[in-house]
Amino acid sequence: MTPPPRPAYKRILLKLSGEALMGEQTYGIDPAVATQIAKDIKEIQGMGVETAIVIGGGNIFRGVAASARGMDRATADYMGMLATIINALALQDALEKAGLQTRVLSAIEMRAVAEPYIRRRAIRHLEKGRVVIFAAGTGNPFFTTDTAGALRAVEIGADAIIKATKVDGIYSADPKQDAKAERLARVTYIDVLNRRLQVMDTTAISLCMENALPIVVFDLTRAGNIKRIVLGEPVGSIVSAGGG
């Protein structure tokens, strides 16, 4: 009997944008998308991969956009953090319906719906096979959920960040606007910063670079991609020190 394939990563952090939960909608949460994400995560949990998730809130409220329209930036960012709590609870529901054990850990204390974020507790949950969802970003205004994803990944000792998008990797320009945009299979952190490639914000990229944490950018809309990444297949694009 052939033994099951060994995962390339033992512990990952999945970075989801709030928009990823919208599906084809213009606002809110599409339950079918949440269900598909849960199925994909169940596959890798069954392989023994420990999974943490950081989710954004842009499908409900975007702090930067509200700030640009005149709202106090800190207030707008806190509102965005609360939107991530809503998304985390929706994703938790989908994961538990798929039969997984989960915990939502919030950087803003909200004990009725989530545990407070404590690093050691988060690691213990992962070791026990629970999917951990980190909500409310870093808990501080002026930081994006990309930065929260990089920070939490470093804190829990993740082997990689896998960043979900709607395209199949990193491009030299927006492929929807530039027909000549080149797909980049491998790229260095420095190239991402110098070329201003829209992977993650500069704070997140710098944090990953300082801690040699690879970033895999992939297409979430294709079912099974998370499993392929975990098995080490060449899915999406990789940001690392070596590049291509």
What is the structure about, briefly put?
With 244 residues, the protein is an alpha/beta fold. It contains eight helices and eleven strands.
The CATH topology: Carbamate kinase
* Biggest beta sheet attributes: 9 strands, mixed
How do the strands line up in the largest sheet? 4-3-5-2-1-6-10-11-9
CA(first)-CA(last) distance:
37 Å
Output the radius of gyration: 17 Å
Stretches where pLDDT is under 50 for at least 5 consecutive residues are none
The helix/strand class is alpha/beta
CATH class: Alpha Beta
Q: CATH superfamily, please?
A: Acetylglutamate kinase-like
What's the rounded overall pLDDT mean?
Answer: 95
- How many beta strands in the DSSP annotation? 11
List the helices and strands in order.
EHEHHEEHEHEEEEHHEHE
Q: What's the structural domain tally? A: 1
Q: What percent of residues adopt helix (DSSP H or I)?
A: 25-40%
Named at the architecture level, the CATH assignment is 3-Layer(aba) Sandwich
Shape: globular
Total helical segments:
8
- State which percent range the strand residues make up: 15-25%
